[in-house]
Design brief:
By secondary structure, the chain is α+β, with helices and mostly antiparallel strands. It is built from eight helices and 17 strands.
């Protein structure tokens, strides 16, 4: 059983040197209410509309709630609704807005490349065992050491609602071996015997967690009666760092028929972010994957 301690809180007003030192030490940074509740709430309501009739909104609790059959990532219901979420222009723009860019720059430097692949997470109750197992993004995204993940809470989430947990200091051991496991992604990375202390906290709308590509993280099961936990995340790196080509595709784009960037962009009136990565200077594919995956390996 995990020994849980609270997430270590950082302040965006701290110096870049202090934040980078903490990031290097723990493998993550946690910022309270960094994104405005209005911005998160507006996107959440757009998502709720597109998730009908499966997910609704409890005005009193200010949380999404299950109003239909439960589902998990990659099952038929999820495949039905997920392309609708991906079509939201505000979802993709979210990570390119100035406030988020400034936070990324504290880790990656003055010029940041935001991965085109944006992820929306929908953790419904009544699907115990389908939560995301412990993993490293360095493996799932075939990424090197300059990539980081950024996760944003779209509403308050308490214990029992599928909170995000991180394993502090786990990034210092490099890319780990993986084995097959139940849950999102289908694999789990190796956890060493001495690694039994995880960091996790109740989060509030607008809270942000940034984590190193080798920082092990996972989701708790959603054991609530009807609350749905929703969050968004993406990956970023310093501009010019190598990026694996599959990260330029829509999340799960290869699995769902009729789901592509063309279908995502169909209703957009703003073309500014469409195919913004076409001229990115350092993409690699399967042929060069091995070199990227072996960095820091013990």
């Amino acid at each position: 059983m995990d020994n849980d301690e609270p997430l270590i809180i950082s302040d965006a007003l701290e110096s870049d040197a202090v934040l980078k030192s903490r990031f290097d030490d723990h493998g993550y940074l946690y910022f309270k209410r960094y994104v405005s509740a209005t911005k998160c709430g507006d996107l959440l309501q757009q998502f709720i509309q597109k998730l009908s009739p499966y997910v609704g909104y409890d005005d009193q609790a200010s949380t999404p709630v299950l109003t239909g059959a439960p589902f998990f990532e990659t099952d038929p219901i999820w495949d039905e609704v997920y392309p609708k979420l991906q079509s939201c222009h505000d979802f993709h723009r979210f990570f390119h807005d100035t406030d988020i860019q400034q936070l990324m720059q504290k880790i990656s430097g003055e010029k940041v490349f935001v991965y085109p692949m944006k992820m929306a997470r929908i953790a419904t109750p009544k699907k115990i065992g389908y939560e995301t197992p412990p993993h490293q993004d360095a493996h799932s995204h075939q990424a090197g050491p300059t990539m980081s993940g950024i996760w944003v809470a779209l509403h308050d989430a308490k214990k029992g609602m599928g909170r995000l947990k991180v394993l502090p200091g786990s990034h210092k051991h490099g890319v780990r071996n993986v084995f097959q496991a139940e849950g999102v992604g289908g694999v789990q990375c190796e956890i060493f015997d001495q690694e039994d202390v995880w960091h996790v906290s109740d989060v509030e709308c607008g809270d942000v967690i940034i984590f190193n590509s080798c920082c092990v993280h996972k989701a708790e099961p959603n054991t609530s009666d009807h609350t749905v936990r929703m969050s968004i995340d993406t990956r970023f790196c310093d501009y010019g760092a190598p990026v694996f080509s599959l990260n330029l595709e829509p999340h799960h784009g290869s699995r769902i028929e009729g789901y592509s960037w063309d279908s995502i962009y169909q209703q957009w009136t703003d073309e500014a972010l469409q195919y913004y990565w076409w001229d990115y200077p350092n993409l690699f594919s399967d042929m060069a994957r091995g070199a990227a995956m072996n960095w820091g390996k013990n």
